[in-house]
Amino acid sequence: MRENLPLSWFHRSVESPVFNWIGLPLSGVPWIYGADTPGLSIGELYEQLNEEFPDGFLLRGCSARVASYFKERGHEIIRTGAEGIVDLDKLDAVSKSVIDLVDRGSKRGVVHELSLTQNNCKRVSEFIDQTPYGSKTRLEYLFNRTFDSSTRCFVVCSPTETWLGVITVSISSDDSCHTEMILRKKDSPAGVMELLLYSAMNIYKQEGYKYFSLGEVPFVTPKGMEEIEIEKSIKQLAQQYIVFKTGHLIRYAFNYQGLFDFKNKFNPLWKPVYICSAPKLRFRALADMFYETGYLELSFSELLPAVRSLLLMENYMGPDKG
Fold first, then answer.
1. What is the CATH number of the domain that holds 93?
2. Are 211 and 248 in contact (CB under 8 A)?
């Protein structure tokens, strides 16, 4: 199972890691948001990071195993959410309600894997505009947002050749794969996305993979989650509280609970996801990430129309009504 690599870091046939990073403006910390890496142990990966970023760095999407390794070396960590992982050996045990939805979806379309062509890459990019979030601010640096050589792409295609849903999947270890994008057309009928994910899981199972990650859901603490207890300071507990509280405040703009409910249908094993910072995690770095990911812009872009609607409603009804 993928435990050495953060989410959306790719297991590739390369001689040494190639890191993708940005410099965070307020804190000045390099945030390594992605990488192509060979099969390295946590210790080997840590050494490579320290060599390339000797003044410190920040990672997100880390497993409890990685977080424990960082904590043991005096670095700081906080939990940000949970990752849902489906054991493909237990895929036959999926609930009847999910199978019923898969059957409904199969009456609406057929699942195809797309070949990696320039036209298909363009179509996937354009498909984003047809989703419920297509016109909203798009989140950055949290997952791979393109169909490229790092991913495979599966679509549900209707009898009229219309795409109803799209997912992209990357490889995170020899036995694990990871869902990057999950895209649903605005008017897609019920069951389409269940069909798409269930079909992809079966394809990877037939190819010998053991684990299928549904990706992270931020700001959630699933019941029964196997969380390794990692001792934190008062400062880190305060930082973690702020992250979750902020997530709850912007729920009107980013429906993470709906995302959790959808992924939870497949009865995954939920595992904690962490931010790891070497050497220390600064409050400014969290503010940086909130800005750079687009959460800040998304919350404002969604809040302003809501406020405008309230003002229009008051003008219509009058200040003394309602």
1. 3.40.630.30
2. no
Could you tell me if 32 and 122 lie in one domain?
no
Global pTM reads 0.90
Q: Residue 81: which residues within 8 A CB-CB, separation 6 or more?
A: 216, 217, 218, 219, 220, 256, 272, 273
Radius of gyration of the chain (CA): 21
Answer yes or no: is 4 within a domain. Answer: no
Candidates 85, 64, 65, 82; CA nearest to 213 is 85
Provide the residue range defining the domain that includes 72: 10-82+217-317
The whole-number pLDDT of residue 23 equals 98
pLDDT at 313: 53
Strand-pair partners of 176: 173, 211
CA distance 191 to 277: 40
Specify the long-range contacts of residues 115-121, CB closer than 8 Å, at least 24 apart: 116/147, 116/148, 116/149, 116/153, 120/147, 120/153, 121/146, 121/147, 121/148
Q: Judge if 95 and 243 occupy the same domain.
A: no
* Residue among 91, 85, 83, 100 nearest 203 (CA): 91
pLDDT value of position 93: 86
Using CA atoms, how far apart are residues 144 and 33, in angstroms rounded to an integer?
10
pLDDT of residue 321: 46
* Domain total of the chain: 2
* Residue 8 pLDDT: 93
Sequential DSSP letters for 14-80? -SS-EEEEEE-TTT--EEEEEEEE-S--HHHHHHHHHHH-TT-EEEEEE-HHHHHHHHHTT-EEEEE
Give the separation between CA 61 and CA 215, rounded to whole angstroms.
Answer: 9
Q: Tell me which residues of the chain have a pLDDT lower than 50.
A: 319-322
* Number of other CB atoms surrounding residue 18 within 10 Å: 12
* Mean pLDDT for the chain overall: 91
Residue 216 · residue 208 · CB < 8 Å: no
